[in-house]
Hints:
The chain is an all-alpha fold.
Amino acid sequence: MGFLDEFIKGAGEIIEGASYGAIIGNWLNKGGNDALNDIEAFVKRGTDEMVDAMDAHLLNLTSTTLDSNQRRQLVKFYAFFKLIEFNKYQKWRGFPE
Length: 97
């Protein structure tokens, strides 16, 4: 793969990451049951690739957030996300690598 291909791939990953970050930010702004309903809808309607990508982004943000209140909320969101994921696939899919 050439430089341009690598550059385009990297730019796409940045844009994708920003999109998942915006979705998570929206969940944080909503909080409570509205956020949980949105998380459930995302997992149920998302493709395997979307669910896997969100899993990685949500776990990363949960583990790197310094604000303790926000981190607590993200831990709840991540636990709920994994429960809905388990329900959708009827198996434990593990953690992102």
